[in-house]
Amino acid sequence: MSRVKFELPADDLTRATAFYREVFGWETQRLPFEYVLVDTDGEPVDPADADGGISPRTRFVQGPVLIIEVPDVDEVAGKVAAAGGELLNAKERVGEYGFSQYVKDSEGTVLCLWQSIADGTAAV
Fold first, then answer.
1. Which of 1, 67, 86, 110 sees the fewest Cβ atoms within 10 Å?
2. What pLDDT sits at residue 60?
3. CATH at 105
């Protein structure tokens, strides 16, 4: 079973963060790199259980992206390719939080595969 979160691209993280806090009352937490975690329920952000994030706009992330939490990014990326999808980048480590890889589904929709590092023992 997988959990689905979201990622919103922004040209200005500070401006976008203020927008979502002011308009929707979302709680936010800026990470030590260019990323902001968000919780949509008004509760303080728990980095291990955030609802989504705001990221810099990139060539992959031009519009909202679903983040699909998976047990093993490498395994699921292989399934994406086998099912007619496209791998957009190599798996990347995201600080001490986990691993991500952007893919396109069979219809061209960009998704982000996410593997959390629950206990710090996940393989690279």
1. 1
2. 86
3. 3.10.180.10
Structure confidence at residue 1 (pLDDT) = 59
In 31-121, the DSSP E strands lie at 36-39, 52-56, 65-69, 86-87, 92-94, 98-104, 110-116
Whole-number Å distance between alpha carbons of 13 and 34: 8
Nearest to 55 by CA among 24, 88, 31: 31
* Domain span at 82: 3-116
Task: Tell me which residue of 36, 8, 3 sits closest to 110, measured CA to CA.
Answer: 8
9 is a domain residue: yes
23 membership: H or E segment, kind and range = helix 13-24
Specify the number of domains making up the chain. Answer: 1
